[in-house]
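Long-time lurker. I teach an intro course on protein structure, and each term I like to show students one example going from raw sequence to a predicted 3D structure in token notation. This year I'd like something fresh instead of my usual example. Would anyone be willing to generate the tokens for the chain below so I can use it in lecture? Attribution to the forum is fine with me.
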Amino acid sequence: MKKQGTVVRWDSKKAFGFIRCPQISADVFFHLRDYEGPPPTEGLRVMFEDIHVGGKGPRALSVEPARNTIVNAPPAAPPPPAGPELLTSRQAPSRSRSQWQKRRDERPLWIGLGLMVFWLILWLVGIGMGRFPWVILTAVVLLNLITFYMYWRDKEAAVNETQRTPEDWLHGLAVLGGWPGAWFAQQIFRHKTSKQPFRLIYWATVAINILALLAWMVWPMLR
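-- Reply from a regular --
Happy to contribute to a lecture. Here you go:
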């Protein structure tokens, strides 16, 4: 569950800052790569997920501007009662926007899962047709485990600010058949999900991988 806090320090040159949250005793560190939204400023109310890394204190992930900011203010006079039509007109757009946002957030998940099912069916059909040996599934599973591990390692390096894994390596593993492991790592670790150039290349590797697998299967029939 996401927590709410306020940005109390932001260094635009070093691209990091700190969030103060009433639920956490220490200020929470966050980096620009873990932030989605307009450039952060001190005093900005944000929502975030917190993790604890060794003895370095809390760190914020998936940081975004708060949608609904709770402000402690003295009680004011209650507004005049609104008619049923006015309440309906105010609440209906809010509900529709919330539902639309939920559907938009879930769409990439269903697309990724659908492509993985299709990809697995291609492998099974190819093995049934004799285009691939059964043992190749073992190699594919190992490749995806390696890809998942490399994403985890890169995420840890980002948190601890140590040497990162080159993005070309991650894309190379994806295009060789490790893209499902990369997809799961992106969703679980919330890593490489907001960097659009990386995302575009990643989905290109998915397309290349599936098209190459499909072409290898149908090539004998085309000849």
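Some talking points for your students: Residues 4 and 55 are 23 Å apart (CA to CA). The longest helix spans residues 84-128.
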